[in-house]
Design a protein that fits this description.
single chain, 484 residues, mainly alpha, Growth Hormone, Chain: A, 78% helix, globular
Length: 484
């Protein structure tokens, strides 16, 4: 399908509006991820009653979508290198829409689990490629803010879904919710999937993928509209040189010196995005609130409130990421999250049953997550890999993200039942401490760097990333310690 962008006249200056629009189009994949993350928390209580689910089966219903997600992520890099980022994202939208409809009409838990695995295929593809697409289009000075749009749309999807769950739950009796209400919750997921597919019809392909596919003329037209004519020609040459130097690349290149460290950092960022505890609260929020005495109506209304707060602080993150820097925000956020998780555990240990302190500490944890380990790993994972391996490398890292997501979904109810709230949340507090140490010791700063500069950093081992300095300052910092 041709696009107007490839036919237009050269622009002397880039269009900020244009790059924001195409970034928003790709970021809509976050709506799918956000919808699925939140919708099951509203449905699981009714499914537990309807199908008499054990703790293990509750975990399997929730985590089944992550099984598909791991497969989808694994396929996404190779598929997108062959047919393009945009087509794979459109496929992801179709798979999720199908899964939403089948889930709504499922007649037993086996069919529901199968549908959620299909939906996971779509979300896995989208979660890996949406931010990759944005990072390959966005200018370095605003790449962090634009890449964080994926997380912002994810949180908007979560917040909107919490409200939707609340409204559906209030639309009938508990008996109606148990037999029918949850079907509406799951089935409405077809709506964001349809929006995502429609918007992608008008989006261009990634300019970096077009160069790799031998379509440099189209790539230049897109880069010109983004950066202006002069910068577009320079960037096209840089991309072409990078790809030419690695024409015979394979995923095994990630195990070479330099890129091996990038792979380790990418995988650990993916793991910590999931295992620090936010998804435990997201998936099982109503069940956690019930443990301290909240009723059914208040469970849903509290989650709707948290969703709105999550949106606000993710917007704050959009403005901070390219100003404060990725690494500093993750250090501050992980330290605060460790403190709040320890305090959440304390509310269970001391049996503070009125719930006020639990809500307050979860608010603090959510705010810290929203400006740090929520959006930033999604931004950095595609940033830190070179052009010729970006989609596949981001796919490898995101497989670990989805695997960790599965583990949280599967085992959280078993931890809560077996260990209780205090020990469960203290475990998450300890994980956040480990996350702080990892960020402080291994994660470089990529603020204000072009993707090609970041690639050279890993290959040459310079200290360029530590301070966020530009390429022209490389000589003055090359001998500095990497993380100091």
């Amino acid at each position: 399908m041709s696009h107007p962008i490839s036919q237009g006249k050269p622009h002397q200056t880039g269009s900020a509006l244009y790059v924001v629009m195409i970034s928003c189009a790709a970021a809509l994949g976050g709506l799918l991820y956000g919808y699925d993350t939140a919708v099951i928390s509203g449905a699981i209580g009714f499914l537990k009653t309807l199908y008499n689910l054990s703790a293990f089966m509750q975990g399997l219903v929730i985590s089944s979508i992550m099984i598909g997600g791991v497969i989808g992520v694994g396929l996404s890099g190779f598929m997108s290198d062959r047919i393009g980022r945009r087509k794979v994202l459109m496929t992801a939208a179709c798979l999720f829409a199908i899964a939403a409809v089948v889930s709504a009409f499922s007649t037993d838990v086996t069919v529901l689990i199968g549908a959620r695995i299909i939906g996971g295929l779509g979300i896995g593809m989208g979660s890996s490629l949406s931010v990759t697409y944005i990072s390959e289009c966005a200018p370095p000075r605003i790449r962090g803010a634009l890449s964080s749009l994926y997380q912002l749309l994810t949180i908007i999807g979560i917040s909107a879904t919490y409200v939707t769950n609340f409204l559906i739950q209030r639309s009938g009796t508990v008996a109606w919710d148990t037999t029918t209400g949850w079907r509406w919750m799951l089935g409405l997921g077809a709506v964001p999937a349809a929006i995502f597919f429609f918007v992608l019809l008008f989006a261009p392909e990634s300019p970096r993928w077009l160069v790799k596919a031998g379509r440099s003329e189209q790539s230049l037209a897109i880069l010109t509209k983004i950066n202006g004519e002069a910068m577009a020609k320079m960037e096209l040459k840089t991309i072409a040189d990078s790809l030419r130097n690695e024409a015979s690349s394979s995923v095994r290149d990630l195990l070479k010196p330099g890129l091996r460290k990038a792979l380790v950092v990418g995988i650990l960022l993916a793991l910590f995005n999931q295992v620090i505890g936010m998804n435990a609260v997201t998936y099982y929020g109503p069940e956690i609130f019930k443990m301290v005495g909240f009723g059914l109506n208040s469970d849903f209304s509290i989650q709707a409130f948290f969703g709105a707060m999550w949106v606000v602080f993710t917007v704050v993150a959009v403005f901070l990421i390219d100003r404060v820097g990725r690494r500093r925000l993750m250090q501050i956020g992980s330290a605060l999250m460790a403190i709040f998780m320890a305090l959440i555990g304390a509310t269970f240990f001391f049996h503070l049953s009125n719930g006020f302190w639990l809500i307050l500490f979860i608010m603090g944890f959510t705010a810290a997550f929203s400006v740090s380990m929520g959006p930033i790993p999604w931004i950095m994972i595609p940033e830190i890999f070179p052009n010729h391996l970006r989609a596949r490398a981001a796919g490898v890292a995101t497989i670990f993200l989805w695997g960790a997501n599965w583990a949280i979904g599967q085992f959280t109810p078993m931890l809560l039942n077996g260990l209780g709230g205090a020990d469960t949340f203290w475990i998450f507090a300890a994980i956040n401490v480990v996350c702080f140490v990892f960020v402080s010791m291994l994660v470089p700063e990529t603020k204000n760097k072009s993707l090609e500069e970041i690639e050279q950093f890993w290959m040459r081992g310079t200290a360029l990333m530590r301070t966020g300095s530009s390429a022209k300052d490389a000589n003055s910092v090359q001998k500095a310690n990497f993380l100091r």
